[in-house]
Write a structure and sequence with these properties.
single chain, little secondary structure, globular
Length: about 70
């Protein structure tokens, strides 16, 4: 799912559990300041791209994503 360059300032946490088969999530070049803890629901995620945002930290729940190969 490619959502680059959309001026997103947030990701609704209640949407992510419905995307549990997602393997790629690209959120580059937005205005995100945080990622919701429910990102841990994306258990098939292999690539997460969050470059060029305003993130100060990432949720600890990212450590649950055992298939994640590239951040």
């Amino acid at each position: 799912l490619y959502l680059d360059n959309n001026r997103l300032d947030s990701i609704k946490g209640d949407v992510l559990p419905h995307l549990n088969s997602l393997e790629v999530l690209s959120l580059g070049h937005n205005n995100l300041t945080e990622l919701p803890p429910t990102i841990a629901c994306l258990t098939h995620l292999k690539k997460l791209s969050v470059h060029s945002n305003r993130l100060h930290a990432v949720p600890d729940s990212l450590t649950c994503l055992n298939n994640l190969l590239d951040i």
